[in-house]
Structure formats: C-alpha cells, structure tokens
C-alpha cells in the first residue's frame, strides 16, 4: 500500500529500509535495530519532505502464532491468543524527533485500520513503551483489559503500574480513546531502556463511525 495524504506519503509493505533507518536513530543511536521478527512483518512509514516521520512494524497472525511473537516474550498471551482468531501485532512504533504533526499518528492508525479490514483481523495489539521510570502510567489506572483475555505476567522484571503522572504516547492515547485495554502490570525493557505495558484494541470495541472516519483519512487522500 502506498498513498499520498497531503504532504505525507503512507507506505506499508515488506520493504523495511526507511523504517529501519528511523528505528536506528530512535532506538540504537544509529546502530541496526533489525531483529528476527522483521522478516515476517509489514513495515509502515509516514514520510514527508524531510524523510520518515513515523514508523511501525505490523505482523498478521492467527492465534497460535501470537504465542511466538515479539509481545509474547514479555507477557503470557495464552488467554488472549485463544480469544481472537486473527490478530495484527504492532511494534517498533517511533516518531522522528522534533514537533509532531498531529496528522502523523492519525495516519499511522488509519493505515493500521486499513490492514485490519483487509485481513479481517479482530484485534490490534502490542507493547506500548514509556520512559524507564514509568512517567505517564498513572493515566492507565482503570484501563485494564477484560479479565477474560488480559495477559498474565511472564517477564522476569514485571512490576505494578507506577503511579507517575505525565503524558501518554500519542498513538496509545488514540487507541485508548477507541476502546483499548492494557495489562494490569508493566515490564522493564533493559534492551531499549524503557518500561512498557501490553495494549490491545479489539475491532469490536471501536464505534462504527470512528472506524469509518479512520479509513476515510486515507480514502480522502
């Protein structure tokens, strides 16, 4: 998929060069961020005149495959994988340094919505990253996913959600507004120097009018 939306070009496909270049800047101080999960994924970028402004990695899965994905390294997804037959795992979300045009996270979400429709997926999910001290996680109080599919603890460094105020990551803020739920605990990620929570957005939770508006961002481009 490749579409123009104003000054932004949205790309989604197997070619990972632009996404990996931005990930290297954001996560590895210029070194490679490629890992074993990239080969089977689709790579999403929103690019402007100055290059990639945002990126994400999307992996279409069935339930059993979710148990072998990136997120399953940190969370027990047994109940979650049994609850959804078709899933899209979202990872390595990043935004270029500097002022963030609000259209950029909206276009990322619209491209994800387009993929969900094309693949008839029932849920988007992944790890939402915060600063290493958990700043912003106070806003997740009362947002726990339903117990029937909420993930269990798995990672060695599992902690209670810190009660620390602060802003939410922009894409997570959008997911929560659409009906997403999160884990009841957080995980310290020593590799990336962050803390993260499991986050999932069931398609059934999204109001139909909001879903139509999302895909319409690209339809109108």
Detailed description of the structure:
With 221 residues, the chain is an alpha+beta fold. The chain has six helices and twelve strands. Strands 1, 2, 3, 4, 6, 7, 9, 10, 11 and 12 form a ten-stranded mixed beta sheet that branches. A two-stranded antiparallel sheet has the order 5-8. A hairpin with a 4-residue loop joins strand 11 and strand 12 (194-202). Helix 4 packs across helix 6 (208-219). This is GNAT family N-acyltransferase. Its EC number is 2.3.1.-. Keywords: Acyltransferase, Transferase. GO terms for molecular function: acyltransferase activity.
What's a concise summary of this model?
This protein is an alpha+beta fold.
Mean pLDDT: 94
* DSSP, total strands: 12
CATH homologous superfamily grouping: Gcn5-related N-acetyltransferase (GNAT)
**Can you summarize the main beta sheet?**
10 strands, mixed
SS-derived structural category = alpha+beta
- Gross morphology is globular
Integer count of domains: 1
State the helix count.
6
Rg, please?
16 Å
> Can you identify the CATH class?
Alpha Beta
Q: How many angstroms does the end-to-end distance come to?
A: 13 Å
* H/E element sequence: EEHEEHEHEHEEEHEEEH
In percent, how helical is the residue content?
A: 25-40%
User: What is the name of the CATH architecture?
Assistant: 3-Layer(aba) Sandwich
What portion of residues belong to β-strands? 25-35%
CATH topology: Aminopeptidase
Poorly predicted regions are: none
EC number: 2.3.1.-
Keywords: Acyltransferase, Transferase
GO molecular function: acyltransferase activity
Protein name: GNAT family N-acyltransferase
